Amino acid sequence: MFFGAPLTIGFLTPYSSVYPYFGPHLMTGWLLGMGLDPVNQKTVQFVPEFTYQGGAATTTDAARKLIYFNRVDVVSGLIGYKSVTDIIPMLEKEKGTGFFFDMGEYIPHFPYLSPNVYYASNQLWQSQYALGQWAMQRFGEGGEIISPLYEAGYHLSPAFVQGVKDAGGAQPGINVIPFDQGQPMKLELDEYFQKWEKEHPAYVHAIFCGNLGINFLQKWMNSGLLNKVPLILHEAMAYDDMLEDIKEGDVNFYTARSWMREDERKENLAFVKAFEHYAKQPANIFALMGYEAGLIWKELLPYAVKKDFQAVRQLLQSEVVRGPRGDKNYYPQSGFALPDSNIIKISITNKHIRKIIVDQGKGLRYDAKEFQEIHEQSVSGWQNPFLCI
C-alpha cells in the first residue's frame, strides 16, 4: 500500500459540447491502466484546471497556475499543439514534465523537441490518410470532401487528400460550408446534394463533428444520394456513441478506426471490462487514450512517487507499451508507433448496427516528406483541441 505524498497531475481541461465528460473518462482510464482503483486509490491526485475552449492564451495561463501555484509534479490534459510552444519554457525552467493528450487533428510538426514534453496523440490524421488511400484504390478519382468551416481548419482534409495523391489520384473536390454566426447549427446542404445527384461523384467524404454530424447523416438518409453515392465518414463521426443517435435510420457508409470496442485481443478485452465495470457505460476513445497512458505510467510509477522525474523522462523517451490497439509510445523523436487503421463498412438497419472490416490502411510517419507540403500550405489559426466547441 502507498503511504507517501501522492503523485500530482495537473489536468488542463477545455470545454467540449461533443464529449462533455471526456476529462473524467480519460482520468478514469489513466488510473485503471496504472492498475489503481479509481475510487479508493490515494497514489495519484489529479488537479483539473479549466481552459475554456482550449485557446493558447487560456491554456498557457492555466499551465502557469498549475506549475507555479499548485506546484504539480506533471502537467497534462487535452491541448492543441499550438499551445505547447508557450508551455515548454515554463516546464524546462522548473525541470517539470509535460504529458499531453490530443485527438490528432493536426499532423505533428516540432521545430523544437523538448525532452520535458511527451505526446499522447490519438492520431486522427493517420486514419484520414488511410481513408484517402483506400478511397482512391476502391472508388477511383472524382470524389468530393465536405465539411463545415471549423473542421476544415485542421489537417483532417489535407491528410485525406494526401492519401488520395499517394495512391495516384488527383485532388478531390473540396466543399467548405459557410459559417453563420447567428445560426451556428444551421446546415444547408441542398445546393451540394442537388449538384451531386446530377454529377454522381465517385464518393463523398464527410468531416463533421457533434450534432452537425448527426444532422448531416439524417439529411443524407433523406436525400437522393442514399445508396447511390458511396459515403465515407471520418473516424470521430462514426464512434459508437454517435451512431446511437442515428439507429432509427437505414444507411451504409465507410470509415476508418484505429480502435474498435469489439476487438478481441486480450489487452482490449481487459480494458473494456475494467472501464465498463467502473463507469457503468460503454468504453470510449477518451477512456482508451487514458488507459494507454496508464499502462506506461504504471511502469514509471516507482520513479514518479520518489519524484525522480529525470528517470521518468528517460524512460518516456524509449518505452513502448502494448495496449488495447497495439503498440504505443510518446516521444516523437523515437518515432510514434504507427496505429493500425482498419477500414470498416458500417450498415445501420432496423436499429441494428453492423460493422465489417473490409481492408486495413497504411500509416505514415508524422515527419514523412509527404506531409511537409501540408505544414507549409495548410496554416491554420485554430488553437482549440478538436471536438472542443
From the structure above, extract its key features.
single chain, 389 residues, alpha/beta, Rossmann fold, five-stranded parallel β-sheet, four-stranded parallel β-sheet, 14 strands, 20% strand
Indicate the topology.
Layout: E1 7-13, H1 22-33, E2 44-50, H2 56-69, E3 74-78, H3 81-93, E4 97-102, E5 117-121, H4 124-139, E6 144-148, H5 149-152, H6 156-166, E7 173-177, H7 190-199, E8 204-206, H8 210-221, E9 231-233, H9 240-243, E10 251-257, H10 266-279, H11 285-304, H12 309-316, E11 321-323, E12 326-328, E13 341-349, E14 352-361, H13 372-377
Parallel strand pairs: 1-2, 1-3, 3-4, 4-5, 6-7, 6-8, 8-9
Antiparallel strand pairs: 10-13, 11-12, 13-14
Helix pairs in contact: 1-10, 1-11, 2-3, 4-6, 11-12
Structure description:
The protein has 389 residues and is an alpha/beta fold. It folds into 2 domains: 7-123 and 263-334, Response regulator (Rossmann fold, 3-Layer(aba) Sandwich), CATH 3.40.50; 125-257 and 340-377, Rossmann fold. 37% of the residues lie in helices and 20% in strands. It has 13 helices and 14 strands. It has helices at 22-33, 56-69, 81-93, 124-139, 149-152, 156-166, 190-199, 210-221, 240-243, 266-279, 285-304, 309-316, 372-377; strands at 7-13, 44-50, 74-78, 97-102, 117-121, 144-148, 173-177, 204-206, 231-233, 251-257, 321-323, 326-328, 341-349, 352-361. The protein has a 5-stranded parallel sheet with strand order 2-1-3-4-5, with helices on both faces. Strands 7-6-8-9 form a 4-stranded parallel sheet. Strands 10-13-14 form a 3-stranded antiparallel sheet. The model has no long low-confidence stretch (mean pLDDT 93).
